[in-house]
Structure formats: C-alpha cells, structure tokens
Model the fold of this input.
Amino acid sequence: MSNERILNTLRAPHISEKAARLAENNQYVFVVAPEATKADVRAAVEQMFDVKVEQVNLVNAKGKVKSFRFRAGNRQGKRKAYVRLADGQSIDVSAKA
Amino acid sequence: MQFSVENVGKLERKLTVRFPAERFESQVSARIAEMGRTVRLKGFRPGKVPAAVIQQRFGSQVRGEVLSDLIGSTLREAFEKENLRPVANPSIDTTGKPENGEIAYTATFEVMPEFPEIDVAGLEVNRPVAEVTDADIEKMIETLRLQRRSFDVVERASAEGDFVMFEYAATAGDYRFPAEGLERAGSVLGSGTLFKALDEALAGRAAGDEFETEINFPADFGNPQLAGKTAQVSFKIVKVQAPNLPEVNEEFAKLFGIADGNLDTFRKEVRANLERELKATLMGRLKAEVAERLADVHGELEVPNLMVQSEAHNLAAGSVPRGQQPPPQLIEAAMPMARKRVIAGLLMGEIARKQELKIDRKRVAEQLAAIASTYEEPEKVVELYNADPQLMSGLQNRVMEDQVAEWVAEHAKTTEQHLAFDEVMRPAGA
Done:
C-alpha cells in the first residue's frame, strides 16, 4: 500500500464517551476515509502508531437529516473504525492527533 | 517539608526545599477531579468526562499549576520559619519530577541587609526654613499682573517691554531667509524671546519704519544657516504695542476666582497658595537632605544588587522618551546615584520600622486635599485616590517619608538655615 494512501486513511480520532470507555479495553475509535478497507486501517494504524492490531471493525454512520426552512438537507456521514490492539499495547491518541 | 539555607554572597541566599511527592500528587488528582465536574469537552456530556481523559488533555497544565502553587506556599512557610526577608521575587530552579518520593527545588534570592545601628543623633542636617513675607506676595501679584497684561497698539516709537511685530529678511552671503518675501515675527523687547542684538535693533522704531542693519546671529540660533553669522537684515515694523498691566482691583481679583473681588481675600488666597508651595518644597528639600546625609554616613552598606539595578533603570528611563529602553551606558552611569537612593530608601524604611512611626491619617488627608485643590474638581480627585489602592499607597509612602525625614531632623544635630522665599523656590536662579 502506498504511503499516500496510509496517510489518507485515518482522518481523526473519534472522541466520545463510548470511545473513552472502549479505550480502557484496548479498543480505539477513528474516523477513516469512506473508501478505506479493514486492511487499509490495519496497515495505517500499525504503521503510524507502531503497534500490533488484532482486529478492525468498520461502521458507516449516516449523517442526520436536518431541515432548514422546510427543506430537507443531509449532514455528512462518516466511516468509523473500531481498532482492537494486541494485549499490552496502547495509543496516546491526543499526542498524535 | 524540609529546607536548608545556603549563603552564596553577602546578601544572596540559596534555599533548597524538599516536600513529599504525595502531597503534590494528591493535589493534582484533587484538581483533576474538580475539573471533571466543570470542564466541557466535545463528545462528552458535562460532568461525564472520565478522569483519564482529563489527565491526558490537561495533565501537564494542571501539574504546572499545582507545582507553582506548592512552591509558593512552601516558600512562604520557609521564609517565615527562617525569618528571611527577600527583596524581590526569588528565581526558582526545579526539575518538577519526584526523586525518592520527594520533589526538590532551589530558590535563589537576595535578602534585606542587616541594618547597623542608625545613629541619627550624629547626623548634621541642614534644615531650610523660610517664610512667606508680604514682599513675596507683592512680587507674586506683580507676576500675575504681568501674565494678564494686554497690549494696545501705539503710534510712538518702541521702548522696553513693548511688543513689536515686524517683517524681516536676512541675507548672509548668498543665503537669504526666507527665500523670497518677508518673514513675520514678533518680540517683547527686553524679555529675551528673541536674542539681544535683535531687540536692540528693534528698539526706538515706530510702526511703518523700514530699515536695514547688520546683525550678529548668536551661535545657538534656531536656523543653522544663520547661527553664528553676521547677516544683512532688512526690517519693516508692522506694529508696536505697549503693555498694559491690569490694575490690582476687584476685576483683577475676580479673574482668579475670588467671587466677591475682595482684595484682602485675594491676598490671603495668594498667601495660602505660596505657603502651600513653600511647604512642599521645604519638605522635599529636607527629605533630600536627610537622604543625602544618611547615604553619606552609611555609604558602605551592602544593598541588594537587584534593587540598585532596578532603581538605576528607573533613573535612566527618566531621561529618555517614555516607553523607550534606556541605553546600557546610561544605566551604568546611573548606578552610583541609584545605590545612594536605595541606601537612603532602605534606611528610612528601617527608621520608620524601628521607631514604629505610624502613618498619620490626618497628614495623608491633608496631603490629598493639597493635591486635589490644584485640580478643577477636587472631590473627584479625592474619590479617585480613595478608589485606587495603588495611588493611595503611593501617597502614603510619600507621607511616611515626610514623617521619617521630620523625625530624623528632630533627632539629629539640626541647624536651621534661614532662606528667603525666592532662594527656596528657585535654588538655581538665586
């Protein structure tokens, strides 16, 4: 996989209460590129943070439908990756983000 | 908490303090727990932010704050126990990392010098004394009249004290001023507004006169092309005005805010004003005198370098335009003077402490009233002073210095030096 693709895969850490809870279980959440595959995310996380990834789950979250002046509009959706690391490994998300 | 003091220089101290790391850590976690309740982070409901996240986000900031708080409080504690009086803020050096369960830091600072016995009785102080006499008042009124004089156009030739308006052109070599036409100027003869040679040339001329003469321009003349040169100057007198001094009467008194125009009240007012000015000047002179003598006697007193430096900086800053950094050589030059002032200031403070001189509320109020009375709206000035602690403490300091100076003058070998009013007010011109 090209270097450019790796750098384009991970968009941002996804910060939420759920993500904070999961971080205690060695699972980290990222917003990733819409076209990214599990293999892409695995390669990207392993290379960027220098860790061993055990499992990647991907979720497509659709954007909310919001209306403005009786006109329906769509918020942008996002693709989230739940990345489980091998035991004993961790990522300092805020340090790199 | 443990601490040890080390004497580095005569006045410099190095204080090493250690305190247990637990004390630090417990405060950090307390602070983080408190933040958890108040902080708002995106992605978390208020109050639901986990401690780990806060630690990650604000950890270093919180640690820094807690550390500086702890250093501040332990330092105060140490100063109190060791009875140290630091002059300025100490400079702190620390790793901030716990070692063997303890956090250590060193503070370097200068302390107040040990004061020797201040022998006031041996001081020889010259105390200037002066009074406002009737002659001074007359003189003052004369000055006021001169300020309020009006000028009337007259047809006669000009004499001393007259205002002469004229047009002129000066030619020196191939330089002509102004380049073409005539320059208009005015002068009160004999007042020294313009230089003497010009005044002489203008004396005895009536309006409409035209003449040419040679004039030696003084070396310090404003126009460098003419300064120090002899020039052929052609004059044209425009008008001559004779001064008209106002009579000292009710009208005149009213000009100065005496509503009923009573001349006695006017004189009284003038006297009060002069006396206030005289009092302030005498006090200032006495203060300077006392400071001078004190500094002379205790010239070898070891004083904190920092204070001397900042005083020198202040002194040097006074001689350059506001907001500019004074050049280093100026500061250097101000050093001996600054040293003297610091010594005098410290000694006066020490005297006040030893003699337990208290700030005299009444004097502060008096001083304040005196300051306020020179403004248009005295009540507002008083209000301003009362509202601003900084202004007030400046005023209190001044009063305190006055009191110390007076106390010293009372207890020293004081010789009274009788001076005339003018000698006090204008020491250089007398």
Notes: The longest strand of chain B covers residues 230-244. The domain at 124-134+252-425 of chain B is CATH 1.10.3120 (Trigger factor, domain 2). The radius of gyration of chain B is 34 Å.
